[in-house]
Specification:
This protein is mainly alpha-helical. It folds into two domains: 2-57 and 201-277, Orthogonal Bundle (Endonuclease Iii, domain 2); 62-190, Endonuclease III, domain 1 (Orthogonal Bundle). Helix content is 50%, strand content 2%. It has helices at 2-12, 33-39, 41-53, 86-98, 104-116, 122-127, 130-136, 143-157, 169-173, 180-190, 200-208, 218-228, 233-249, and strands at 19-21, 26-28. Strands 1-2 form a two-stranded antiparallel sheet. Helix 7 (130-136) packs across helix 8. The longest helix is centred in the last third of the chain and has 17 residues, at 233-249. 36% of the residues are buried.
Length: 278
Amino acid sequence: MRYFKSLYTVAVSFYGRFFYCAASHFILDSRDQVEAVKNSFLIRVYDLLYREYGAQGWWPIKSLSGRNGFDERGYHRGDYSYPRTPEQRFEISLGAVLTQNTSWRNVEQVIEKLLEAGLCSPEEVLKYPLTELSELIRSSGYFNQKAKKLKALSALLQRYTDQRNNPSRRELLSVWGVGPETADSILLYAYHDLYFVVDAYTRRLLIRLNKIKGSEDYEAIRTLFSTCLPDDLSLYSEYHALIVRHAKIRCRKAPMCETCPLLKEPLSGKNLCAHGNK
């Protein structure tokens, strides 16, 4: 798999750093880092999810739907070079806000309307009347609030249309309506900054894997991933997307453990998912 080619390259580059492995809860020195990556619990989970579901092609770019390398919904599986333009980055950023508390299917409809209205840049969103913007995004839910959020986000992102500069996490978190999950989604998928995205699905999976109790805050869970994973864009991008896919298909609130890929290969004589052992 393409993932393995980058995994060991990144692992070797870790020389001189410390690597914390969640599977065994201890600090490894640089001589053990390649083996640590190989045996990391979270890497094993990723491997099984990737084998089961394959590349997810996140974040979808609706404006490129149907073009070479893109499916009809804008997913670009196996190509991590996107987004390539300020307009594409802005589209992803808008989607990260619009998807709050709603399904992506609803967001797709809204993105199409925004594109048709020519709202492809922060400047265009800022010029657009607030009441009309609210109506345009109505199907995303909480449309009055989200319209204000899009305006606030656009005010920040208009300073970052130069591809050489990215907004900082602190700046994004200072925007009204942008929390850690939304900020990290924008940073990872729009700007290729390595911030692992944590959502309710991530929390659910880790609870069932006996890696967290459930009371941990967002930063604690994000740190768990960032300290155990190689600094690799494709890995970060796919891992979050694979967790979402797995949670929607099998690791639901009422889980379908019988066909869970995390029960197919034991780790140290046990199934990876403790929930399936009950």
